[in-house]
Design goal:
single chain, mainly alpha, 6 helices, 66% helix, 0% strand
């Protein structure tokens, strides 16, 4: 009997991609602690831990028939919360030198939501 593929590479890609997208939160939280902003540091570490748990919880192989957009939505919302936290930690838009138009740079980060959104984990198995 042929053995089903484990798809280990895709699993590593999902976990590595998610960890890579949130590691900056932990780094910025540690900087906040170093600067004496303990509330901001605790909030940042909390967001990081919740993001780790969410990344584990919403792994597509745990929900193989769920569309990717449903799995990505809570993860993207956590990234938005982290972005708001980062701006708040740095003193707000004015103090950080940011401008609202700079958010346009983040739009390409949403591309997986639109390009893969209607697929699900089992789609590859059906086409094999």
């Amino acid at each position: 009997m042929p053995q089903l593929p484990t798809r280990r590479g895709k699993k590593i890609g999902w976990l590595g991609g998610w960890l890579g997208s949130i590691v900056w939160i932990c780094a910025l939280a540690l900087v906040a602690f170093w600067q004496g902003k303990f509330i901001a540091g605790l909030l940042g570490l909390s967001i990081f831990i919740v993001s780790l748990i969410a990344g584990w919880w919403f792994m597509p192989w745990r929900h193989p028939t769920t569309r990717y957009w449903r799995l990505l939505l809570p993860l993207y919302l956590l990234e938005m919360v982290a972005l708001i936290w980062a701006v708040w930690t740095s003193g707000g838009w004015q103090a950080s030198g940011l401008h609202w138009s700079m958010l346009a740079v983040l739009l390409p980060l949403l591309s997986p939501f639109f390009t893969l959104g209607w697929r699900c984990w089992t789609d590859d198995e059906r086409h094999s």
